[in-house]
Amino acid sequence: MTKQSRYSPEFRERAVRMLLDQQGEHESQWAAMNSIAAKVGCTAETLRKWVRQSEKDLGLRDGVTSDERERLKTLERENRELKRANEILRKASAYFAQAELDGQAFLRRPK
């Protein structure tokens, strides 16, 4: 169940590149973000998040890279699946252990 992104990765990369190329033409990075965001059709805050993530991916800023984030999601998903499987196995084991005890008690009954 992955969330469908409104913008493609190529679109995001192009918008970030546009910002990096044109930020010198504006008085601040935020002003450049507002200008570029209006041109490409996203919000300035969305563009700011893309730029910050790009900086993390390039090692220019501290934080979790996109690859690390994907790996964490994969590991968390696998962990949930394994916990679910272990719970099923635990319940099945208890059920069969109880069935075996019930069967043994049945065999020991006097006739």
Q: CATH top level of the largest domain?
A: Mainly Alpha
Annotated CATH architecture of the largest domain: Orthogonal Bundle
Order of helices and strands: HHHH
Please tell me what the overall shape is: rod-shaped
Summed up, the helix count is 4
**Using only CA atoms, what is the Rg?**
28 Å
Instruction: Report how far apart the termini are.
Output: 58 Å
Main beta sheet strand tally, sense and closure: none
Molecular structure report:
This protein is mainly alpha-helical and 111 residues long. The chain folds into two domains: 1-63, Orthogonal Bundle (Arc Repressor Mutant, subunit A), CATH 1.10.10.10; 73-111. The protein contains four helices and no strands. It has helices at residues 9-22, 29-40, 44-57, 66-108. The model has no long low-confidence stretch (mean pLDDT 91).
List the helices and strands and how they pair.
Elements: H1 9-22, H2 29-40, H3 44-57, H4 66-108
Helix pairs in contact: 1-2, 1-3, 2-3
Question: How would you sum up this structure in a few lines?
Answer:
The chain is mainly alpha-helical. Helices cover 75% and strands 0% of the residues.
